[in-house]
């Protein structure tokens, strides 16, 4: 902000309203509040000067309604925040329960599949060993049996 100094001889030419308005604007600019355009501010100031009771009423109303309004805004922001984090906690809990249930089901299915696989592999292994053993036993047993031969003619003659 540029500091404009007014010469002493021109100071009397400036109306008091302008000077008060300037001080008022400087005060609000210093605390970071930007005032509305000059015409709106002047109209509001003229209305307040011509209707002081209404201006005081609006000022008191604004001050008194700002407390509940600020409380309501804080309540809304707090509710939204609590709802958001509450949703995260509830959703996180539900997801954790679902993941644990899924993990339990997957462990159960894994051990069932492992059991079925071991059973089938054992059956196939026993079958292959049994086949080899049966072949060895059959060869050994046949080698000890006497050979019996029947003449074909006798079988055919008896059948007639």
Which key features would you list for this structure?
5 helices, 160 residues, 0% strand, mainly alpha
Short description:
Pfam families: Promethin. 83% of the residues lie in helices and 0% in strands.
Describe the fold and architecture:
Keywords: Membrane, Transmembrane, Transmembrane helix. Residues 1-20 are annotated as: Disordered. It comes from Potamilus streckersoni. The structure is a single chain. The chain has 160 residues and is mainly α. 83% of the residues lie in helices and 0% in strands. The protein contains 5 helices and no strands. The chain has helices at 8-11, 16-30, 38-50, 52-144, 152-159. Helix 3 packs across helix 4. The chain is rod-shaped, with a radius of gyration of 52 Å. 0% of the residues are buried. The model has no long low-confidence stretch (mean pLDDT 79).
Span of the ends, CA to CA: 139 Å
* Rounded radius of gyration (Å): 52 Å
Task: Please state the overall shape, judged from the principal axes of the Cα atoms.
Answer: rod-shaped
How many H/I helical runs? Answer: 5
Note the main sheet: none
Strand content: under 5%
Low-pLDDT runs of 5+ residues are: none
